[in-house]
Each structure stands twice: as structure tokens, then as C-alpha cells.
Specification:
It is a single chain. This protein is mainly alpha-helical. The protein is built from six helices and four strands, in the order H-E-E-H-H-E-H-E-H-H. The strands form two sheets. A two-stranded antiparallel ribbon has the order 1-2. Helix 1 packs antiparallel against helix 2 and helix 1 runs antiparallel to helix 3. The chain is globular and about 45 Å long. It starts with a helix and ends in a 16-residue tail after the last helix.
Length: about 200
């Protein structure tokens, strides 16, 4: 898909979905505020296309300051830092709806490799940095082929494959598989084999 067409697709889809889901987001914000202290919108530094930094937006699903507690960036099923409202938001992926604002800003795309944090990108090999050739996406090839349950190197390989084979037909397939994944919740947590491990 060429860049102008992809951008038009991103703007149309993100604006439409934001409009349709705004009542859900508003209810989620109220529920988050009622259950725990802290701002309902969570910002985290991520790395985008060509290494450009940006703040990804999500609905907060954990207690405030969770990244400085327990397992840090690693999150698994049953993590005590996840709030009750947060568990529901994660299960339904409603927590990621504010990512659509990042798409409207041009920092993200609907489909592409998921954006990662600077400490992870710092460990990339030259080849692995190839996943930064496209804008990060809300969903992507790695997301629909195991999501967080995949070992980190395998997720990167799937993202690199997508960068090399990106097309309209593949994007349509990813959207269909994403819809199915939202129903089943498969791959939401890293489990025993998934996730990134800090080598330091």
C-alpha cells in the first residue's frame, strides 16, 4: 500500500472508530477514576518510525506508578498491579482505543509493528532495527500470530516479515484476524515463553 493511501486509510478508520467508541471510552475513564487514584490516560515513551520518539496513549489498566513496581514492564495474567477495571479493559483491548489519537497525529498507523520502549530498541541488532522502517501499528502481523505470548525474537522476526511483505491484501487479512483475536483474547499475556527479557 503506498504511503498516501495508507495515511488516508489510517485517518478514516481512526476517526470513525474514535467517534463510534467515544461513549465507551468516556465510561471507562469514569470507571478508572472511581476505582483508583491517578490519571485515567496513561502515557509511555515509545519509539516510532525511523527511531522517532513519541508518547503512546492508553487507558490506565494498572495502579499508578506500576512500571516502578514488581516486574516493571513485564505484565502477566494475574499481575496484582492490574486493577479490576483494568483487567476488563485489557481483555477487550478497550485500553488501546486512545492509540487511535496517535494514529490521527501521524505517529502510528492502524497496522504495523507494535511500538516498543527505548530500552528494548537499544538492544536491537542492525537487522532488527528494520522493524522501525514503518510506522508502528495498533495491530500487526506479530499481534495476530501470538501477540505477547510469543518469545521476543520471534515477534521481531514476524514484524520484519511484515515490513518486507506489506500489502493491501495482507492488511485486510490482519484486520480480519485482529477481529477474531479480540473475541478470543488469545495471546494477551506473555505466559511462560513470551515477552521481552532484559539481557543486562
Amino acid at each position: 500500500m503506498n504511503e498516501p493511501l495508507r495515511r488516508a486509510f489510517d485517518v478514516l478508520v481512526s476517526a470513525t472508530v474514535l467517534l463510534l467508541t467515544s461513549p465507551i471510552v468516556a465510561l471507562a475513564v469514569v470507571a478508572i477514576r472511581l476505582e483508583s487514584k491517578g490519571h485515567p490516560i496513561y502515557r509511555q515513551h515509545r519509539v516510532g518510525k525511523d527511531g522517532a520518539p513519541f508518547d503512546v496513549l492508553k487507558l490506565r489498566t494498572m495502579v499508578a506508578g506500576a512500571e516502578r513496581m514488581g516486574a516493571g514492564l513485564a505484565v502477566d495474567d494475574g499481575d496484582s498491579r492490574i486493577t479490576r477495571v483494568g483487567a476488563l479493559l485489557r481483555r477487550t483491548s478497550i485500553d488501546e482505543l486512545p492509540n487511535l489519537v496517535n494514529v490521527l497525529r501521524g505517529e502510528m498507523s492502524i497496522i504495523g509493528p507494535r511500538p516498543t520502549v527505548p530500552v528494548q530498541v537499544a538492544q536491537y541488532t542492525d537487522r532488527q532495527r528494520g522493524r522501525l522502517a514503518l510506522k508502528p501499528g495498533i495491530t500487526g502481523w506479530a499481534q495476530v500470530n501470538g501477540r505477547a505470548s510469543l518469545p521476543w525474537p520471534q515477534r521481531i522476526e514476524l514484524d520484519l516479515w511484515y515490513v518486507e511483505h506489506a500489502s493491501l491484501a495482507l492488511d485486510v487479512r490482519i484486520l480480519w484476524l485482529t477481529a477474531r483475536m479480540l473475541v478470543t483474547g488469545h495471546g494477551l499475556y506473555k505466559g511462560e515463553t513470551g515477552g521481552w527479557v532484559d539481557p543486562s
